[in-house]
Amino acid sequence: VGGEQVVLAPLPAAAPPSLARSTTVLEQVVVTGSAVGAPERSLPVGLTILSGAELRRRVTTGTTAEIVDGAVPGIWAWEQAPTSLLAHFASIRGASSFDVRYPKVYIDGIEMASPLLAARIDPEMIERVEVIRGPQGAALYGTDAISGVVNIVTRTAGSSTGTPSLGGHASFGVAGSAWAARPPVTQEYGATLRAGASARSMTLGLTAGGTGAYVPGAYDRHVGFTGSARFVGTRTIVTATARVQAAQALEPESPVLVDSLPVTIVPANRQSAGQYTLGTTIRVMQSERVTHTLVLGVDGYRLSGVGFESTPVPSAADSALRAANGAADRATLRLGTVLGFGGPDVSTTLTLAAEQSLLRSATRDTATLAMSGSGGGPGPSGGGERYSGGSGVAWRSNTGLIVQGTSALRGIVYLTGGVRLEQNAGFLGAPRWSALPMLGASLVGGNEQVIVKVRGAYGRGIRPPRTASRESLGGHDGRDEIERFGVAPESQSGIEFGGDVYVGRALLLRVTRFDQTATNLIQPVIVDLGGYSGGGGPGPRRIDYQLQNVGEIANDGWELEGQLARGPATLGGTFSWTSSTVQRLSYGYTGDLLVGDRVLEVPRHTASASLGWNAAHGGASVSAARAADWINYDRLALAAAIVTDTSTTGAPTGPWLRSYWRQYLGVTRLRASFSRQLSDVVMLVLSGDNLLGAQTGEPDDITVVPGRTVRVGVRTAF
Predict the structure, then answer these.
(1) pTM, 2 dp
(2) Is residue 354 within 8 Å of 335, Cβ to Cβ?
(3) CA angle 508, 512, 514 (to 5 degrees)
(4) Which of 324, 316, 321, 232 is nearest to 271 (CA)?
(5) Which of 71, 34, 26, 170 is nearest to 713 (CA)?
(6) What are the C-alpha distances in Å from 499 to residues 43, 183, 490, 539?
(7) Hey, which of 5, 100, 105, 373 has its CA 20 to 30 A from 520?
(8) Percentage helix, strand, coil, to 5, in the chain?
């Protein structure tokens, strides 16, 4: 029933089973990459599994960056301010897009309408997180799984005794800031109710929190509810999931810009984001060789005024000034059957599945041109001009037919092959029919103490020009460019191969080499509209953005991962080396990239190290994660150049932007935590984030995050 659980349900009128002469630890069963669940040893891809117990020990805020950075090699998410409501991925094995980089995200098998909204996850309600990097998962998960798949599995274990148990946590802290007169306060609260035993269980969780003004005028407030339930029958397992989250924030313009630009900055919009997930999974074991699965659910969001700095020019100097306003709802229906054949020497598992996804998205595309003369110089006008870029409702559907087979030879050789044939309707620019293949093999050998695994896999994935995530980024769906200029869908294909070494439960070593080619990646290219946005003289030029295919990108690199456990101590680390370079440019591309360039904002190196100590009455941990060597814009200098431009020719387009590229050496994040049991029901928790106190430097020179943050809290269980 889970990655670390087996439930023995009573079988009526059956004789008691005989006990095996010896017992072994069952291998971890995973869902991602196997449709309905399979042992990890048979998978040909480098799957990373983050246990909920580990997340609860080391994660304090539940942000995407805090969860994946350093724990999942090959993936890096930029640290963002608490007022940022969208996740910002820098690299997933290189570049899989330009304005939107993200893996495809599922919650208990239900696809999220926008993966960018998985910016905050409550660790208290997580059983595990399964991560596939690269396009190999597209054969099962279809369109938009171009760079990987993340499946978040919620807790349904119930209580250990079967009687209801209540737990809670509360923390209070302060954050340092060079732009705040007094340290801003941060608070997090939560409660969890668990009831039932393993066969019938329920878990309910409630969280709330917020952070004060780490820069003048900023704040965020968030609240969330997650519920899950499970029923285990003689031949049936039924699980249900419900999730609701809401957040409000005010994110003023970067104080770095406010202090540097000779303009009065337009006040920030109030932002709000709401999300929900509702669904169920029914698994029926018809026999030992036949299993049927039904997944039915819906996920959606509502956004208002949500900003995301995904373009070169900061909003203070950008006459387009976009913000996300709209909504989307995605319904998912998946039917699957797994058939088993053969005996102990040669066995085959065949998966047949059909999936139907229906997406309804409503966008409001608005652009505010609010620059005009003030006192003879550039500045915002009193009323400004508002241009409605368009709004509307779009319906899109995706139908997938999946065939996948895995053959095992004596439990040593595993051969996997499959294809997903899918039909896309309503996706502008996407082919109506697509075939997404995956081929892989793994070789496993060893004894009870040491297991060695060698694996390799090939896969291909696609992403249409219009996606809910791209639309949620700023209300700009690119319909005009797609229809008039034939913007093609993004695609990525390639191989990965590597090896794993397991020494009991004490040591894990994993190395992976990946070599992928991404074609037709889409970039929002600046287009000069001519003239100036100001009404009283020269100032910021009137600009807009046009979606264009860049060409061909080569993504390749190495990933290393290791973990050592000795008694109460654990030592872990990761390292990734990534090369993401332009190999070819598309005809008609007018952006600033040239053949041979490194793709912007992709770190060359990422690394992490962690040390933990878990004892009966408490524990401690310290971890460090670092991203180094990436190219990005000098956005402060770029904004100043645009705002103070008094020329009558030229525009912030094409080669002009290249003069504002700069190399960023790196950023290091240091975190630590300490816990001590005060009584049978109360635990004291101390934690620190961003202990080095750096507030700027990732991913550019104007983004500001809270400084050194220290929290004190308690955990209770009744």
Answers:
(1) 0.88
(2) yes
(3) 165
(4) 324
(5) 170
(6) 12, 48, 30, 57
(7) 105
(8) 10, 55, 35
Which residue type occupies 419? Answer: V
Give which of 629, 637, 543, 634 is closest to 590, Cα–Cα: 543
pLDDT at 25: 39
* Rounded alpha-carbon distances, angstroms, from residue 466 to 359, 394, 397, 544, 685: 12, 10, 12, 18, 45
Which residues, in sequence order, are CB contacts of 399 under 8 Å at separation 6+? 354, 355, 356, 357, 422, 423, 425
Q: Can you tell me the distance from the alpha carbon of 465 to that of 72, in angstroms, rounded to the nearest whole number?
A: 28
The mean pLDDT value for 513-529 works out to 88
How far apart, in whole angstroms, are the C-alpha atoms of residue 5 and residue 29?
9
Q: How far apart are the first and last CA of the chain?
A: 26
Contact 263, 371 (CB under 8 A): yes
Does residue 706 contact residue 690 with C-beta atoms inside 8 Å? Answer: yes
Q: CB of 524 within 8 A of CB of 311?
A: yes
Closest CA to 12 of 234, 284, 290: 234
d(CA 370, CA 317): 10
CB 336 within 8 A of CB 35: yes
Q: Which helix (H) or strand (E) holds 191?
A: strand 185-196
CB neighbours of 667 closer than 8 A, spacing ≥ 6? 79, 626, 627, 628, 694, 697, 698
How many residues are listed for the chain in this entry? Answer: 718
Phi, psi of 186 (to 5 degrees): -125, 140
652-683 burial, b at 16+ Cβ within 10 Å, e below that, comes to bbeeebeebbeebebbbbbbbbebeeeeeeeb
Q: List the one residue out of 429, 420, 520 whose CA is nearest residue 97.
A: 520
- The tokens describing 242, both together, are 């419900």
pLDDT digits (tens, 9 = 90+) for 427-454: 666 677 889 999 999 999 988 789 999 9
pLDDT tens per residue across span 567-604: 899 999 999 999 999 999 998 899 999 999 999 999 99
Percent of the chain having pLDDT more than 90? 47
Cβ–Cβ < 8 Å for 280, 239: yes
Tell the residue number behind the tokens 């003239």, with chain if given: 531
Distances in Å between the alpha carbon of 297 and those of 109, 294, 356? 9, 10, 11
| Residues 692 and 667 sit within 8 Å (Cβ to Cβ) | no
